[in-house]
C-alpha cells in the first residue's frame, strides 16, 4: 500500500503545484472513515482507495481526481454522508465523489450482451466529467488485480465478464490501450483458465526454440535505423495470451498455425520520420499483403494514431510493427487521460514534454463550441439517449425526453395500455415526468385498458404514440357508434315514434353506408343529422314541420318532451367523443346543452354560455343532462375569481381551505395586485355543482378572502 508521503511525491513529480494540504487531509480522512474495514484479501480496506489514487497518479491526473479516488467509497461503504464531503472538501470534490458513488450503485446489472452494451452507454452518458469515469476505471482495475482473493468462483467469473463487456471496451473507447489490455488479460485468466494455460505453454515452446529472438530482432531493427540516420527507440514484446486467443478466433486458426506472436514499437520524433521508417523497413523486409494500416492519416475514433505493418523480419520470422511518435505513444497508453491536466493548475517553465498539452488546452480555450473537443472534456457521446432500469434490473434505452408511457410501451403493449401510474426511484411521479439516466421505473397497472387521448402529449416514442393512436381511433369509432345510436333513439322518442333498428336497413344506400353500425358512426361524428334519418324513414314528418301553425301549437309541449328526453352524459369517455367546453367549464349540476361538432362528438356547454350565441346557427344542438352517478367523480374543472387581502398568509389560507374541501388547484394566475389586495384566477378540481358551492361558501368565511365568484 502506498504511504502518504509516497503518494504525494508521485504527484509532485508531474505537478509541482499539487494541493498538498488537501491531499494529506483526504488521505487521513479516508483512513479514519474506513477504520477497521477489511478487504477479502484480509488487507485494510483503505489500501484499495490508496491504490486507486496511485493508478490515477501514474496517469498524471490533477489533485481533485486523486482526492476523489481517496474518498470514492466513503459514502457507499461508511456512515459518512455526501454533505460532510461537501463541508470538508468543497463542491467540486463532492460532485465527483457523488458521480462515482452513483456509478457504483449501478454495477452488477448486466446479464447479457445487450444489457452490457446499454450499461456501457449509460456509464458514458452519466459521466459528465471525465474524471468520474476515470476514477471508476481505476477502481475496477485495482479490483481486478486483486480478484483472486474472492473465494466464490462464480462471483469471480461474473465480475470478470462484466469487466470484459463493459469496462475494457470503455478503456478502449477512451484510447487507453494499456488499461484495456491489462483488464482483458486478467478477465481471460478468470473466465478461461484452461485455454489461457494452453496458450502460455505454446508461447513457452516457441520461446525455447530461440530464447534470444526478441533481443536479436530489436538489435537488428535498431542497427538498420541507425544506419539510415534515424533517431529512434525500438521496443519489443510477446503478444499476451488474450490477444493471441482473440486473433485465433478472428482468423479461425489453430494454435500450432500461429507464428506472429512478436510485436514491436518504433518510437520517433515526428510524423515525417514515421513514413521514412516505413519506407526503410519495406525496402529491406518483405511486406505481408493486407496487413498495413495507416492510422496517422486516418486516426481511430478514440484518437489513436500509428502506422501498423506486418513483415517477414529478421531470421525470417513474421513480426508486427507499430511506428509512432512519442506523443502518439503516450496517447496510446493513456488515451484521453493524457490530455487531462488543468491549465490553471499546471505551472511549467520550458518543459518540452508539456508543450503539446498546452497546445491542446489553448485550442480548448479558443473553441467557440465545446462539442468540438468533447473527447478531451466530457463523454456525452450518447446525449440523444436516456437509460433507465426496470424493477428487475433490465436496462432500457429510450430517446432523450422520454416519459414513463414510452418506457411502459417499450416493455409491452399491454403494460402501456393498462398503465394507471408510475413509480420512479420508488416514488409516485406524474406521467409527464421526463426520465433521467439511471432512473428505476416501475409501471403501475390496472385491470383494464386506461388509455386517454391526453396520453399523446405524454409520450414521445413512435411505438407509444402508434399504440395510443390506434386505441383512440378504434375506441372513438365505438364511442361515435354508441353516441349516434343514443341520439337516434332520443330523436325517435321526441317524435313519439317506435324505434326498430331493422327499418334502418332500407335507407342505408341513401346515406352511402354499408351497415347500420356505420350509419350510427356517421350520426355520432356529426356527418348525418338525426332529423334527416327521421325524414328519410317518415317523409310525412317533413310536411308537418313545414306548417308553422302546427309548430307553434306544439312548441310548449315539444320543449317539455325534449327536456325529458335528453341524452344522459354517461358511458362516454371525456376527451374522446365528449368534450367539456373550456370557456364555461360545465360541471354536474349545471344546466347544459350540447352540439355535435363534426368529427369530434359532443361539445358540452352551460346553457347560458356566451360562446353559444355565435354557434347556434352552425351546429345541430342536442339536449343533454347529467347522470347522478357522475357526481362521485372529481375529474371536473371549475374556474374561480378570488380577491385576497394583500397580507402574509393569505395564499396559504386559500390553499388550506381548498385542501380541507378535498380540491386540488389545477392552475393559478395573479391578474392584479395593489397594496391592499390582489386578484387571481384559479382552476380547481370539483365533483359537481354542490361541491363547488360548498368550496365557495368556505372561502367566503375567511377574513383574508374579500370576494369569490365563479367564472
Describe this structure in words.
Helix content is 46%, strand content 16%. With 711 residues, the protein is α+β, with helices and mostly antiparallel strands. Strands 1, 2, 3, 4, 5 and 6 form a six-stranded mixed β-sheet that branches.
| Oligomer class | single chain
Number of H- or I-type helical stretches? 27
Largest sheet: number of strands, sense, barrel closure: 6 strands, mixed
- The chain-level mean pLDDT equals 80
Number of strands: 20
Secondary structure class reads alpha+beta
Shape: elongated
Q: Over all CA atoms, what is the radius of gyration? A: 38 Å
Q: What portion of residues is helical?
A: 40-55%
N-to-C span: 75 Å
Uncertain runs are 339-383, 546-564
Q: Classify the beta-strand content into a percent band.
A: 15-25%
Amino acid at each position: 500500500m502506498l504511504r502518504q508521503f509516497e503518494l504525494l511525491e508521485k504527484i509532485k513529480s508531474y505537478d509541482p503545484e499539487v494541493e498538498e494540504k488537501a491531499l494529506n487531509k483526504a488521505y487521513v480522512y479516508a483512513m479514519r472513515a474506513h477504520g477497521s474495514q477489511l478487504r477479502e484479501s484480509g488487507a485494510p480496506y483503505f489500501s484499495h482507495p490508496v491504490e486507486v489514487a496511485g493508478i490515477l497518479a501514474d496517469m498524471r491526473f490533477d489533485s481533485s481526481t486523486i482526492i476523489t479516488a481517496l474518498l470514492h467509497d466513503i459514502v457507499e461503504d461508511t456512515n459518512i454522508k455526501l454533505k460532510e464531503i461537501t463541508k470538508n472538501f468543497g463542491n467540486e470534490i463532492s460532485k465527483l465523489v457523488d458521480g462515482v458513488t452513483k456509478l457504483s450503485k449501478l454495477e452488477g446489472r448486466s446479464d447479457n450482451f445487450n444489457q452490457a452494451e446499454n450499461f456501457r452507454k449509460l456509464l458514458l452518458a452519466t459521466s459528465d466529467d471525465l474524471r468520474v469515469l476515470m476514477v471508476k476505471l481505476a477502481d475496477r482495475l485495482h479490483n481486478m488485480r486483486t480478484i483472486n482473493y474472492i473465494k466464490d468462483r462464480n462471483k469471480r467469473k461474473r465480475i470478470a465478464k462484466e469487466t470484459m463487456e463493459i469496462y475494457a471496451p470503455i478503456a478502449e473507447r477512451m484510447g487507453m490501450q494499456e488499461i484495456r489490455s491489462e483488464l482483458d488479460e486478467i478477465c481471460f485468466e478468470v473466465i478461461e483458465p484452461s485455454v489461457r494455460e494452453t496458450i502460455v505453454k505454446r508461447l513457452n515452446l516457441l520461446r525455447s526454440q530461440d530464447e534470444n529472438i526478441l533481443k536479436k530482432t530489436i538489435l537488428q531493427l535498431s542497427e538498420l535505423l541507425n544506419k539510415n540516420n534515424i533517431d529512434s527507440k525500438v521496443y519489443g514484446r510477446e503478444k499476451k495470451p488474450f490477444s493471441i486467443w482473440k486473433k485465433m478466433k478472428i482468423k479461425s486458426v489453430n494454435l500450432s498455425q500461429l507464428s506472429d506472436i512478436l510485436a514491436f514499437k518504433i518510437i520517433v520524433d515526428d510524423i515525417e520520420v514515421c513514413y521514412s521508417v516505413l519506407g526503410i523497413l519495406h525496402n529491406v523486409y518483405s511486406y505481408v499483403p493486407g496487413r498495413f494500416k495507416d492510422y496517422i492519416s486516418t486516426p481511430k475514433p478514440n484518437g489513436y494514431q500509428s502506422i501498423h505493418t506486418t513483415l517477414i523480419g529478421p531470421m525470417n520470422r513474421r513480426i508486427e510493427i507499430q511506428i509512432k511518435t512519442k506523443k502518439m505513444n503516450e496517447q496510446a497508453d493513456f488515451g484521453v487521460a493524457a490530455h487531462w491536466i488543468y491549465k490553471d493548475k499546471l505551472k511549467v517553465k520550458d518543459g518540452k514534454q508539456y508543450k503539446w498539452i498546452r497546445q491542446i488546452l489553448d485550442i480548448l480555450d479558443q473553441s467557440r463550441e465545446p462539442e468540438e473537443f468533447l473527447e478531451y472534456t466530457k463523454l456525452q457521446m450518447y446525449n440523444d439517449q436516456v437509460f433507465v432500469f426496470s424493477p428487475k434490473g433490465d436496462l432500457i434505452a429510450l430517446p432523450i425526453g422520454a416519459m414513463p408511457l414510452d418506457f411502459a410501451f417499450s416493455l409491452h403493449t399491454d403494460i402501456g395500455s393498462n398503465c394507471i401510474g408510475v413509480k420512479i426511484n420508488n416514488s409516485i411521479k406524474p406521467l409527464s415526468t421526463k426520465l433521467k439516466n439511471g432512473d428505476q421505473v416501475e409501471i403501475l397497472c390496472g385491470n383494464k385498458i386506461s388509455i386517454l387521448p391526453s396520453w399523446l402529449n405524454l409520450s414521445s416514442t413512435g411505438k407509444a404514440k402508434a399504440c395510443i393512436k390506434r386505441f383512440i381511433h378504434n375506441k372513438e369509432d365505438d364511442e361515435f357508434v354508441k353516441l349516434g345510436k343514443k341520439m337516434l333513439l332520443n330523436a325517435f322518442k321526441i317524435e313519439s315514434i317506435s324505434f326498430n333498428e331493422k327499418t334502418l336497413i332500407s335507407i342505408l344506400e341513401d346515406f352511402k353506408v354499408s351497415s347500420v353500425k356505420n350509419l350510427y358512426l356517421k350520426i355520432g361524428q356529426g356527418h348525418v343529422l338525426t332529423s334527416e334519418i327521421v325524414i328519410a324513414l317518415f317523409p310525412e314528418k317533413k310536411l308537418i314541420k313545414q306548417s308553422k301553425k302546427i309548430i307553434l301549437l306544439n312548441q310548449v309541449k315539444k320543449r317539455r318532451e325534449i327536456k325529458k328526453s335528453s341524452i344522459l352524459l354517461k358511458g362516454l369517455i371525456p376527451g374522446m367523443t365528449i368534450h367539456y367546453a373550456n370557456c364555461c367549464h360545465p360541471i354536474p349540476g349545471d344546466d347544459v346543452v350540447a352540439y355535435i361538432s363534426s368529427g369530434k362528438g359532443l361539445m358540452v356547454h352551460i346553457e347560458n354560455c356566451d360562446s353559444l350565441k355565435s354557434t347556434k346557427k352552425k351546429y345541430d344542438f342536442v339536449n343533454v343532462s347529467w347522470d347522478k352517478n357522475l357526481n362521485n367523480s372529481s375529474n371536473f374543472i371549475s374556474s374561480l375569481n378570488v380577491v385576497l387581502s394583500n397580507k402574509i398568509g393569505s395564499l396559504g389560507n386559500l390553499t388550506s381551505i381548498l385542501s380541507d374541501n378535498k380540491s386540488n388547484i389545477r392552475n393559478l394566475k395573479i391578474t392584479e395586485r395593489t397594496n391592499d389586495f390582489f386578484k387571481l384566477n384559479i382552476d380547481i378540481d370539483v365533483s359537481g355543482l354542490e361541491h363547488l358551492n360548498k368550496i365557495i361558501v368556505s372561502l367566503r368565511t375567511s377574513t383574508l378572502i374579500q370576494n369569490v365568484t365563479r367564472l
